[in-house]
Amino acid sequence: MTPDEYVEAVLEVVERIPPGRVMSYGAIAEFLAEASGRCSPRQVGTIMARHGAAVPWHRVVAGGGRLPPGHEGRATELLRAEGTPLARSGRVIMTEASWWPGTT
């Protein structure tokens, strides 16, 4: 998979995340690891920062449920509107909100 194909694959996964659910940067990297030969959550984060504006970027969080750095306020608004489970701390409750492609 070329670097451009990997960017497209990441964005396609993000587009599939249902409202009210999230995936972590690491989960996206893991999901694409076999097909891409890469497994870097940091690379997924870079792709989201550079190319993620046209997809539901707010549904991609850090593994501990932390919201996208620098966009916490807007992400919180969007996630609340979708009914995503959030803790009082503002983090996503990953045990309730995590999603994996192919699951409901």
TrEMBL record:
<keyword id="KW-0227">DNA damage</keyword>
<dbReference type="InterPro" id="IPR014048">
    <property type="entry name" value="MethylDNA_cys_MeTrfase_DNA-bd"/>
</dbReference>
<dbReference type="InterPro" id="IPR036388">
    <property type="entry name" value="WH-like_DNA-bd_sf"/>
</dbReference>
<dbReference type="InterPro" id="IPR052520">
    <property type="entry name" value="ATL_DNA_repair"/>
</dbReference>
<feature type="domain" description="Methylated-DNA-[protein]-cysteine S-methyltransferase DNA binding">
    <location>
        <begin position="8"/>
        <end position="83"/>
    </location>
</feature>
<dbReference type="GO" id="GO:0006281">
    <property type="term" value="P:DNA repair"/>
</dbReference>
<dbReference type="InterPro" id="IPR036217">
    <property type="entry name" value="MethylDNA_cys_MeTrfase_DNAb"/>
</dbReference>
<protein>
    <submittedName>
        <fullName>Alkylated DNA nucleotide flippase Atl1</fullName>
    </submittedName>
</protein>
<dbReference type="GO" id="GO:0003824">
    <property type="term" value="F:catalytic activity"/>
</dbReference>
<dbReference type="Pfam" id="PF01035">
    <property type="entry name" value="DNA_binding_1"/>
</dbReference>
